Amino acid sequence: xxxxxxxxxxxxxxxxxxxxxxxxxxxxxxxxxxxxxxxxxxxxxxxxxxxxxxxxxxxxxxxxxxxxxxxxxxxxxxxxxxxxxxxxxxxxxxxxxxxxxxxxxxxxxxxxxxxxxxxxxxxxxxxxxxxxxxxxxxxxxxxxxxxxxxxxxxxxxxxxxxxxxxxxxxxxxxxxxxxxxxxxxxxxxxxxxxxxxxxxxxxxxxxxxxxxxxxxxxxxxxxxxxxxxxxxxxxxxxxxxxxxxxxxxxxxxxxxxxxxxxxxxxxxxxxxxxxxxxxxxxxx
Length: 284
Fold this sequence. Notes:
This protein is an alpha/beta fold. It is 47% helix and 13% strand.
């Protein structure tokens, strides 16, 4: 059993909202933080949609349990309120290193000394900002896959300074909220999942951006040849285009060219993926 009872999730975007709802579905107290009222209004809509999704797709998720998860959730734009009583704070804000460092530095002043800090960063190594947390022994990466109720892995990656007891505590917590703990023995950009997935997605993007093949044909090829249910561009739409764009924009020269293509043809036109009703594909 885990000693963690009160969890704060910073960031209520696609994945942040899923993390918060999954934790609340496990009957933990959850404070979901975002920067303004507009972001919280969007979060409330995400949580409502998630409650319906769980009813439809999660075994045992009847109306009572799905509604109970909503009652375990509290939303705020006050970072001090989010941090004040937390046993665990999970950061799911944009993939911008300086932003993460400044956020954790502020959290260290606001949160109890006993609180564990975790980043859901999909690409950045925890050692890149562990010093900013002020508690490197109580800090690690905890990465969730998109559609957490279906693809329920929780990847753990500490730094050389992370206390083994903290890793074990997070393993127990992950199991308690229905996740499958996957521990990396040392730091690796992309963990296990994204080390496999990102090269696929970037290769698909290069094919389309370079004019080699249409989006639909890239996806069709991958689905037929591998038997998987979704092609890479459908995966992009589920993830949302903003996070991949932020990652590419800080990458190599080639990555930055791909980021510019995505920005010009999709993001600047409001096509951000499933969440906005249109990305590489259009959704009703």
